[in-house]
Design brief:
Helices cover about 30% and strands about 20% of the residues. By secondary structure, the chain is of the alpha/beta class. The protein has a single domain (about 20-294), classed as Spore Coat Polysaccharide Biosynthesis Protein SpsA, Chain A. The longest helix has 25 residues, at about 270-294. The chain is globular, with a radius of gyration of 19 Å. The termini are far apart.
Length: about 290
């Protein structure tokens, strides 16, 4: 999901009609959500039916406790297990090193969500929670086969327990900020937009926010393609939604992208992890050269 690091300001713009990739809002009526069936996983290790209702303080209006937006942010992620995450980083990194970078990116992402001014935070996880998970998150299991299904059902399962707008992001943009997340949620809470959408530099997308949930808005959209973002945006527009585009961010999928994002975030966990791996690689090469000289 991807572009340069963006900080703070809320994104606004006048309403226009027609499919756009960047710029102001795309006009259309709200698409209402469909019924959701199947098991949901709420809490660190606790199974609950998807019909459970969560009513955080302030859920009836636009503000939650302490002025937080009556919205929920989902991070859809995989447990950072070697060989199962960030496989495009291997080579030059080993599977274990790629998993370490994935864990650092996930930790930075979750920290930004934890600091965002929203009422509820959800992790839609494939695998088991680890030390990287901060407090304050509900954890739900992923369901479905392809990424389109897992995104659609993460949105629907989250919405089934509280009827507030939902913003979904992945684990590949450690540069995301609490302010940028708030700028994605606020137009949905206020009704200024039906959807918010962040394109990725590689042609995918890094954020999808919806005021109302309908799995059909995502199901069947081809993922992991150079035009996935455009296809997903077209689906939203054809569904009649007013879409507010957000700034593009860079997804970390390759070693070059990792270097660029880390350079923008020198104080992040992700940058620190990459520096440690680079130092280790330099030390290993120096040892090998010394041995060859002897």
């Amino acid at each position: 999901m991807t572009g340069p690091v963006v900080s703070s300001a809320v994104v606004t713009g006048p309403v226009v009609t027609g499919p756009v990739v960047s710029g102001p809002v795309v006009n259309g009526p709200v698409v209402r959500g469909a019924a959701v069936t199947g098991p949901a996983y709420i809490g660190r290790h606790r199974q609950e039916p998807p019909t459970e209702t969560i009513s955080p303080p302030g859920s009836a209006g636009e503000s939650g406790p302490d002025g937080a937006l009556a919205a929920q942010v989902i991070v859809i992620a995989k447990e950072p297990v070697p060989g199962r995450v960030k496989t495009r980083l291997t080579p030059p990194f080993t599977p274990a090193e790629a998993a370490a970078l994935a864990e650092a990116a996930l930790a930075d992402t979750l920290a930004a969500v934890a600091d965002a001014t929203v009422t509820r935070r959800v992790l839609a996880l494939e695998g088991a929670p680890g030390r990287w998970l901060p407090p304050g998150f509900d954890v739900i299991g992923q369901r479905g086969g392809g990424l389109d299904e897992r995104i659609a059902w993460a949105l629907a399962d989250t919405r089934s327990s509280w009827s507030a707008p939902v913003v979904l992001i992945g684990m590949d943009t450690p540069q995301v900020t609490p302010e940028l997340l708030a700028s994605a949620a606020e137009p949905l809470v206020s009704g200024a937009a039906d959807a918010t959408f962040g394109m990725a530099e590689d042609g995918g997308f890094w954020l999808l926010g919806l005021r109302e949930i309908d799995p059909a808005l995502v199901l069947g959209v081809s993922m992991s393609r150079p035009d996935t973002g455009a296809r997903q945006l077209r689906r939203l527009v054809e569904g009649g939604l007013r879409v507010l585009p957000l700034p593009a961010l860079t997804d970390v999928d390759t070693a070059d992208e990792a270097e660029r994002v880390a350079a923008m975030l020198p104080d992040s966990r992700f940058a620190a992890c990459l520096r440690a791996l680079d130092s280790r690689a330099l030390g290993s090469r120096a040892t090998q050269q010394a041995a060859a000289i002897r």
